[in-house]
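Hi again,

Forgot to attach this to my earlier email, sorry! This is the prediction with cytidine-5'-monophosphate bound. I've pasted everything inline since the attachment limit keeps bouncing my files.
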Amino acid sequence: MPSHPLTIAIDGPAGAGKGTLATRLADYYHLPHLDTGLTYRAVAHMLLSKGWPLGDEPHAIAAAKLVDLSSLDRSSLSAHAVGEAASKVAVIPEVRRVLVEKQRAFAAQASGAVLDGRDIGTVVCPDATVKLYVTASAEVRARRRLAEIEANDGAGDFATILADIRRRDERDMGRTDSPLKPASDAHLLDTTEMDIETAFLAAKTLIDKALAEGNRG
Ligand code: C5P
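Structure tokens for the complex follow:
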């Protein structure tokens, strides 16, 4: 057993494959997993369902306080439009502060944890055992998003999805509070030409090495 709980921090832009990778790693290392994007999506979803503007800070902060990590319903939050809306509420510093506190409590479980998002290695879990920054070209990410939509019997247009992805990257990387960027000690994993199995094996090698070093130290 490692002397400290294993905490795995995974960051990266939309569609890079970090969610699938996080699920695989959580399963393999028997760790609870939090997709922190769902917490921002839950806030956006609450505002959208009440018809409140996404820039309505008092309501967004109140919604963030109501987010319950144990009842995040992926099926109602997965829509592309909710992701877009989430990146708008995610620029509000007080919304981030409220959600980061809940995410840190999840990360502090004695069992260890896997968290994925945009600021896990930089802000939420700066002391994570292993930090991964998963990326891929915008074109490949747009193609994957379109395939996902089509697999769920939806229809989409490649050029529109690519433009959305580029806009979301700009918003996530350009915001003042907790912008998306690799932590200085993150391992970069470019999945442009990698399937999920290859990405999983690369991540597993890095994690096993960190665990072996932790046990020696
Ligand atoms: O990962 P997902 O697409 O579900 O995230 C939706 C949006 O939530 C992101 O575009 C980003 O703006 C925001 N987010 C964030 N910090 C996180 C996770 C997500 O700002 N840790």
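Residues 14, 36-37, 40-41, 83, 86-87, 90, 117-119, 168, 172 surround cytidine-5'-monophosphate (CB under 6 Å). Residues 28 and 204 are 9 Å apart (CA to CA).

That should be everything now.

G.
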